[in-house]
């Protein structure tokens, strides 16, 4: 059974995830940086640095949210970054951010379903996803869509939470994720489910080699897995 934010509702995971992010959009950036002590910024920089040798010109950022990863990717000087997300609330916050930073000529945000991307085959030089694939209703279908719209030779970079496996980080991580994070998240976001769903979805997610296996199954080649910060997060890369 799929892990969903609102267990008392009958909507599918995709609809519930969109609702959840709409509910927390205004507090998302603050909570993201606060709950990770700012280390999520370091993780994004590392992910972008792995993409740098490719010098991509057309980049697609899936589950772009408030566009933090898209903005970080501007360091590579692409011609254009297109960000897609299923949460209009998150996109609204992202667009406001782009206007304030004067970046609307470089980054375009639009509604888009990761499992049915509104783009032609072989469109993008690179695809990025930060903390988004865990929320796909059908992981294999979403990754297949990424492979479809990527140009031959293009690279996909996925940044996602993973599960530490070594003492004492495993125990500290589980305590923080199950006790501290949901409490603070609920207090600030006013959404009772959002930050309970986060640790549950991380626990259920096929991380590490399991993710690499699915990555390869849908067609990605030269796949690599980079573990970050004692295994709290991972970056997965693959080429078409």
UniProtKB/TrEMBL annotation:
NCBIfam families: MenG_MenH_UbiE, PRK00216.1-5
Coiled-coil annotated residue ranges, if any: none
Pfam family, one: Ubie_methyltran
EC id: 2.1.1.163
Swiss-Prot/TrEMBL keywords: Menaquinone biosynthesis, Methyltransferase, S-adenosyl-L-methionine, Transferase
Residues reported to bind S-adenosyl-L-methionine: 66, 85, 113-114
Gene3D superfamilies: Vaccinia Virus protein VP39
Entry-linked PROSITE patterns: SAM_MT_UBIE, UBIE_1, UBIE_2
Role, per record: Methyltransferase required for the conversion of demethylmenaquinol (DMKH2) to menaquinol (MKH2).
InterPro entries: SAM-dependent_MTases_sf, UbiE/COQ5_MeTrFase, UbiE/COQ5_MeTrFase_CS
Catalytic activity: a 2-demethylmenaquinol + S-adenosyl-L-methionine = a menaquinol + S-adenosyl-L-homocysteine + H(+)
Keyword flag S-adenosyl-L-methionine: yes
Organism: Pontibacter oryzae
Similarity comment: family membership: Belongs to the class I-like SAM-binding methyltransferase superfamily. MenG/UbiE family.
Known pathway: Quinol/quinone metabolism; menaquinone biosynthesis; menaquinol from 1,4-dihydroxy-2-naphthoate: step 2/2
Protein name: Demethylmenaquinone methyltransferase
GO molecular function: demethylmenaquinone methyltransferase activity
rRNA-binding listed as a keyword: no
GO biological process, alphabetically ordered: menaquinone biosynthetic process; methylation
């Amino acid at each position: 059974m799929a892990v969903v934010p609102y267990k008392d509702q009958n909507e599918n995971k995709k609809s519930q995830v969109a609702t959840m992010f709409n509910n927390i959009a205004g507090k998302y950036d603050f909570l993201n940086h606060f709950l990770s002590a700012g280390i999520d910024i370091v993780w994004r920089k590392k992910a972008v640095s792995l993409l740098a040798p490719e010098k991509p010109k057309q980049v697609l950022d899936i589950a772009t949210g408030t566009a933090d990863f898209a903005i970080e990717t501007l360091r590579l000087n692409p011609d254009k970054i297109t960000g897609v997300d299923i949460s209009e609330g998150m996109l609204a916050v992202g667009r406001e951010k782009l206007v304030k930073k004067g970046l609307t000529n470089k980054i375009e945000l639009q509604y888009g379903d990761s499992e049915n991307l509104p783009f032609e085959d072989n469109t993008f030089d690179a695809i990025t996803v930060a903390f988004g694939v865990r929320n796909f209703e059908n992981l294999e279908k979403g990754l297949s869509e990424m492979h479809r719209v990527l140009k031959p030779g293009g690279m996909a970079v996925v940044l996602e939470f993973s599960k530490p496996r070594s003492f004492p980080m495993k125990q500290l991580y589980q305590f923080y994720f199950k006790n501290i994070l949901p409490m603070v998240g609920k207090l600030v976001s006013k959404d009772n489910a959002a930050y309970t769903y986060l640790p549950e979805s991380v626990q259920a997610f096929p991380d590490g080699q399991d993710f690499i296996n699915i990555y390869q199954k849908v067609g990605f080649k030269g796949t690599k897995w980079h573990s970050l910060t004692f295994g709290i997060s991972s970056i997965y890369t693959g080429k078409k």
